[in-house]
Specification:
- The chain is α/β, with parallel strands linked by helices and 391 residues long.
- The chain folds into two domains: 256 residues, P-loop containing nucleotide triphosphate hydrolases (Rossmann fold); 74 residues, Immunoglobulin-like (Sandwich).
- 38% of the residues lie in helices and 23% in strands.
- The strands form three sheets. It has an eight-stranded mixed beta sheet with strand order 3-4-2-5-1-6-7-8, sandwiched between helices.
- A hairpin with a 2-residue loop joins β11 and β12.
- The radius of gyration is 25 Å and the shape is globular.
- The N and C termini lie far apart (50 Å).
Length: 391
């Protein structure tokens, strides 16, 4: 199943475009699931059909689902208390009743990630359209599975989990209590669930559709979003310019905003596949309004983001390798690189990611880097101390 993630700045019409995209794909014959995460039913208001914790049919071949974060959080907390009953009793902790539990910040994001995993495993649909939060929260959400898995591996490494049988002996020798079995089982389960979500995000069939109003603020938001998505290795399938004012009828629309939109659209078309959504003069409501927006379904031909490793030519200073990392819109002054063992820390434009080095580069030393035309080129030279000697 293909996955199309839709995001953009707040108030840009993300939910409307997500609903219109899903409806267009369904009308083209693709069984489609539209997944939303809002606490209020904005998605249902746009579709004209209430959505909630259970998937509901909206139109032929189109189903909408808005998971209930509050219920999911209560279920998770109750299950955690049951597993940790021994520790909680030892500490004299008073358990929380399900009725008094309210979701903490981040519960909606975790619920959406779990729903994303479950939906991707379904065989009932050919396309999954996800109405993500606004750009900053969406980027944090997409980074969460990878970052949480890294934290788990550092706190509870697999080699420590493999030594479970020795824990009682080690506990007696060291005189300190060792982690309980439930902790390792919980960590393993979380790692498995997070790996499944990470696989969906990293899949070559997953792409992002950005939504923004053409103008200075929208241009800045798109530039930031494209950079953050590229650092995560996510492809931007297309850019939907929302609420575009008509070029004719100057008396109805002021000339200055129309000219501003025209300028921004021209710039966007140089870098993206742009779909324009005309301003209806009202908030779209129901299938007829969504169809009138003329938003296309998902494009199956989007190009995935590649981070290729190539041999160094004469222009790169001779023997070795070059790692090409696309970072559109990145500025040299905002770029920072740190080699840490077999990992590379990349920080740019307020974003940061720790990525494992490709195997061929782990036995090399970093020999410099350059940012050219939106591509970071990191040069590597084989380390004689780690490279096999030629006979």
């Amino acid at each position: 199943m293909r996955t199309l993630l839709i995001t953009g700045p707040g108030g840009s019409g993300r939910t409307t475009v997500a609903a219109a995209t899903a409806l267009a794909a369904a009308r083209d014959g693709t069984p489609t699931l539209l997944l939303g995460a809002g606490r209020t039913d904005t998605l249902g208001a746009v579709l004209g059909v209430p959505t909630g914790a259970e998937p509901v049919p909206v139109a032929p071949r189109l189903t909408a689902w808005r998971p209930d974060a509050a219920t999911a959080f209560r279920d998770d907390l109750t299950a955690f208390q049951d597993r940790a009953a021994g520790v909680l009793d030892l500490l004299g902790a008073a358990r929380l009743d399900a009725e008094e539990v309210t979701p903490l910040p981040g519960a909606e994001e975790l619920t959406l990630l779990r729903a994303l995993r479950d939906a991707a495993l379904s065989d009932s649909f050919g396309l999954l359209v996800v109405d993500l939060p606004p750009v900053p929260r969406a980027l944090d959400l997409l980074a969460l599975p990878e970052e949480l898995r890294r934290y788990l591996r550092r706190l509870l490494p697999p080699e420590r989990q493999a030594a479970r049988a020795l824990r009682p002996v080690l506990g007696r020798l060291a005189g300190v209590p060792m982690p309980a079995e439930w902790l390792y089982e919980t960590a393993a389960r979380w790692d498995l669930e997070l790996a499944a979500v990470e696989a969906v995000v990293a899949d070559r069939g997953t792409a992002v559709r950005l939504v923004a109003e053409p103008g200075p603020a929208g241009a800045d938001a798109v530039r930031t979003a494209a950079l953050g998505l590229a650092l995560r290795g996510l492809a931007t399938e297309s850019l939907v310019a929302s609420r575009v004012l008509p070029e004719t009828g100057g008396e109805a629309w002021p000339a200055a905003p129309v000219a501003q939109q025209r300028k921004t659209l021209a710039e966007w078309r140089e870098a993206y596949a742009v779909h324009t959504v005309r301003h209806l003069g009202r908030d779209p409501r129901g299938p007829e309004d969504l169809a009138a927006l003329d938003v296309p379904g998902a494009d199956p031909a989007h190009a995935p983001v590649e981070w290729p490793v190539t041999g160094r030519g004469a222009e790169d200073g001779g023997t070795g390798y070059v790692w090409h990392i696309p970072l559109p819109g990145a500025l040299r002054d905002e770029l920072d690189l740190i080699r840490r063992g077999d990992e590379l820390v990349v920080a740019v434009g307020g974003f940061r990611r720790i990525v494992p080095l490709p195997s061929v580069l782990r036995r090399c030393t970093v020999d410099g880097a350059a940012l050219r035309e939106g591509v970071l080129r990191i040069r590597f030279t084989p380390d004689p101390a780690q490279w096999p000697r030629e006979k």
